[in-house]
Design a protein that fits this description.
Main location: cytoplasm
Protein name: PSMD12/CSN4-like N-terminal domain-containing protein
Distance between the termini: 61 Å
Shape: globular
Largest sheet: none
Number of strands: 0
Pfam families: PSMD12-CSN4_N
Helix content: 55-70%
Radius of gyration: 18 Å
Keywords: Cytoplasm, Nucleus
Organism: Phytophthora nicotianae (Potato buckeye rot agent)
Order of helices and strands: HHHHHHHHH
């Protein structure tokens, strides 16, 4: 079996964008349960040699499949999501969709562990006022209320009130 690095090199030589994107997605799925390989692939995808349209599509795909990884079988899931968030942060405007998906996965993991403040912080880091992704008033209100609920789970009333006040701006009579 070829190494991840040799596969990345082979894929990088594919001329057709659709074919290249599909090859990257296949490689991701082949190594979905290997933390070191996944990190290598993410670093490669975010490099300057990979076209943004390809890296965005593949990273978004990764964010969707990572959500389905069983944390009990793969305890490194939290570490990997945090790794991905750190790697895409400098280019957040280009990777807003996977950022949201990773943060929602992270929040779900924290909620399962009853770490409600961490879950709230993960969701609060989503930019609901983004100019690149439009959220409806209902979506914004729901997200802010969810964050407030998480803070209330730990009796953090000041933070909860802050998010309730944000939600109230989007609730119309």
């Amino acid at each position: 079996m070829a190494t991840v690095d040799s596969e990345l090199l082979r894929i990088s030589r594919i001329a057709d964008q659709k074919e290249k994107t599909a090859a990257y997605k296949t490689l991701l799925e082949e190594h979905l349960h290997d933390l070191a390989s996944l990190k290598t692939i993410v670093i490669h995808l975010l490099g300057e040699d990979v076209l943004l349209v390809i890296s965005r599509a593949v990273i978004t795909h990764l964010a969707s499949v990572v959500a389905g990884i069983d944390v009990d079988a793969h305890p490194w899931k939290l570490e990997f999501i945090c790794f991905c968030l750190a790697k895409i942060k400098p280019r957040i405007l280009s990777f807003e969709e996977p950022d949201v998906m990773f943060r929602e996965s992270l929040a779900a993991m924290y909620m399962d562990e009853e770490e409600y403040i961490e879950a709230a912080k993960a969701l609060a880091a989503i930019n609901l006022e983004s100019s690149t992704r439009q959220y409806t008033d209902v979506e914004k209100a729901e997200k802010y209320v969810k964050i407030a609920e998480l803070y209330l789970q730990e009796d953090e009333t000041v933070d909860a009130e802050n998010f309730i006040n944000r939600a109230s701006r989007f609730i119309h009579n």
